[in-house]
Design goal:
The protein is built from 3 helices and 12 strands, in the order H-E-E-E-H-H-E-E-E-E-E-E-E-E-E. It is α+β, with helices and mostly antiparallel strands. The protein has one domain. The longest helix is centred in the N-terminal third of the chain and has 16 residues.
Length: 185
């Protein structure tokens, strides 16, 4: 039993690092000047968003930071919502879970007067035998950076696509009933 105390404390401590409020440092939601966006991430599959607000560069990394990646690795990462309606994608986020990689999402307020720059990645892994040659290799990829300007009062979702062709992302507008439609860019 004593052998479990230290690892349990470490998991608790590191998972607390992953549970920060996605809207920290932001004022209450103002639908006349802001939009809301949902980003997905998991260990080895981060989504990164950058934008400028009042001359300040902002970068959001869902799934790629130490706390998020570790929380996903040990299965304690949880969704963080600010009230965006659920969609088919968000209701079924667990279908994207992998071995040692729990999928989750975080929602954010973003200024509607800023261009959002978003990309995702798959960080591949390799296992080597003692002789130095790879015995298992999972390729890596990174999507092209997508840019769009959100409209005031609207909700969005960024879906990550990773398959044999590589990495890509798609942005959807979320309607009040949870239905989604692609955003024209």
């Amino acid at each position: 039993m004593k052998n479990l105390i230290v690892p349990s404390m470490l998991v608790l401590l590191l998972s607390a690092c992953a549970s920060g409020t996605p809207t920290s440092g932001q004022a209450d939601y103002n639908p006349k000047e802001q939009a809301r966006i949902r980003l997905y991430g998991q260990n080895g599959k981060p989504t990164i968003m950058r934008y400028t607000n009042n001359g300040q560069e902002n970068k959001v990394n869902v799934g790629g930071g130490l706390g998020d990646a570790f929380g996903s690795l040990v299965g304690v990462a949880s969704n963080q919502s600010i009230g965006i309606p659920q969609t088919k994608i968000s209701r079924n986020v667990g279908e994207k879970n992998g071995m040692l990689s729990k999928a989750f999402y975080k929602e954010f307020y973003v200024p509607s007067n800023s261009t959002l720059l978003i990309n995702n990645a798959l960080i591949g892994m390799a296992n080597f035998n003692p002789g130095g040659s790879a015995i298992y290799y999972s390729p890596s990829c990174s999507s092209k950076e997508l840019s769009f300007q959100p409209e005031s009062g609207k909700d969005y979702e960024v879906a990550s696509i990773v398959n044999q062709q590589g990495c890509a992302i798609a942005v959807f507008e979320i309607k009040a009933d949870g239905e989604i439609q692609p955003v024209a860019r």
